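User: Before I run my own analysis I want an independent prediction to cross-check against. Here's the chain; please return only the structure tokens and, at the end, one sentence I can use as a sanity check.
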Amino acid sequence: MPTPILTTVIYEQILILASPATATEIQIAAPRISKRISSVAEFDFSLPVILVGDSPTLFDPTVQEAIRKHQARILFVLSNTHSDLPAESGGVPIFGFLSRPLHAHVLGKMLQAAQENMSLRAKQYHLELDLARAFVEINELNNIGAALSAQHDTSKLLEMILQKSREITHSDAGALYLVEEDEKTQSRVLRFTLTQNDSVNVPFNAFTIPIDKQRISSYVALTGTSLHIKDAYDLPSNVEYGFSKDFDIQIGYHTKSILAVPMKNHKEEVIGVLQLLNYKPDRNVKVTPENAEQVLRPYPERAQHLACSLASQAAMALENNRMVHDIRMLFEGFVQSAVTAIEARDPTTAGHSFRVKKLTVAFAQAVDRVDDGFYANVKFSSDQLREIGYASLLHDLGKVGVREHVLVKANKLYPSQLELLNQRFFYVRKAIQEDNTRQRLEYVLDKGRETYLANLHYFDSELVERIREIDEFLLFILECNRPSVLPAGNFKRLQDIATYHYKTWDGSEAPLISPDETRLLSIPKGSLDDAERKEIESHVIHTFNFLSQMPWTKELRFVPEIARAHHEKLDGSGYPFKLPASEIPIQSRMMSISDIFDALSASDRPYKRALSAEDSLNIIQSEVKRNLLDGELYRIFLASEIWKLNLPPR
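Assistant: Structure tokens:
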């Protein structure tokens, strides 16, 4: 909209600062100019002014500053005798020159032009100030928005929202309320979440209030509209909300102006209320009940717009944080459910992955704290700790690719194989008894009853001896079937038993234990043969392949690499990749120690009994001495007593 041009001269804004003769001449030419001063000190330049005259004091620095701010203009009356300007005029802008004799028409036009120029330039000056201020505020809003978006810690985000809102609006205090659902009533309530105050220390106690029209914050949450209150102690009689002075009295404060703004998400749902208190032009002043009326003002329109804009940004940042948190919780829930389902295939190892995660994350935090030794400079961020947690929790994910009967194999023979072997021995016993009975019958028929009775002990002892031999074979086989270390002499006895044959129902002969049973029972340690052990070890490859297919975020991209190396050894003898020490990440080295400790000390498994913590640590120590595990990390594991985390509560 164009600025209107002045059509009349405002004589109240014109001052004469001249010699007596010149002053008289000016007043003759313009009789309505009545104000004559002898010094610039006599006038307040807070109002626009036109100075007319020939006095050197027209060029006072005070006048020069007023001209710069477009609060003054000079019309200089030239001398009839010389055209030189006073020496003091150097560098001072002069709007116009008047030559003698002064003409009323010319003087009037010059005065009007000076006032119009000053009015236009003053408006331009203030527009430029407003533009510069707006630029600073927009830039500040952008910076705040970027800072809010970058903050993923919800508590710190809420602190930042309130702090930045107070700074940009010159608020002495403020509070933040968040909308949540009451678990008992299933209704929406407003939680008093945060408060800040530059003038007094405010005790903070979180509480909830119903979303209704009784309080300022709940009114804004309910209606979704902003409230600007000029004086909280003097509310209009027709408003539905109220304000209590009690808390002010309790903490020695005075609340005057209030600006309460709803925080809305992208669905226009109110998720919180930003309540700012006490606009103060001077940010540094401390508000007291005594000076509140002097230092506090209502919120200007610009501050209200800024607060609304910032509340909108804050709501989006908070909603994004919540969405990230919800997605993270959803993913963690999925991971935990997947791990639980996988471990359910082998109930004896249930909880192992969760315990390894607990140990390894605590282990990493302990490494992060050390300030001496080889790992003094190793530090883990919160994202890296989360990465370690996921890798530890999912390190056995690949076991889903291992056949279940191999995964849960407790002894050298599978249950079905052992059942078949037991049935075979039962058949052999019956066959021995049948053969013994047949021999008795033939002997009676051939030798007669009296002779048979005389030799009865022979038949009885033979039966007992043959049954005893078979039973000893079975007991020995059952002992060999256990996953403990097999003594060297047992291999030969197994071979001897394997040569024992029995007659089947059709009269043919068959070995008492088959070649495959002999091979499995001859496993020197554990319950797995080479093929089964490789299948179990392949779970690491399956884990790596599964995890590599997941779209990990940048912060978690090393989860597959950490998980794949947890069975590697520093001397390159580990599996499945036989990585050298230089390629085994520190995260994997920590997980290896945690994994071994839990596997040794966890509750009894079918193939072994749980070891004490001391024995478990001794075994790990022996692997450190053989250069299989990291000795410096093991020292930290011991010194920080990480291993105690898995001990049952006393």
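Sanity check: Residues 104-150 form the longest helix (47 residues).
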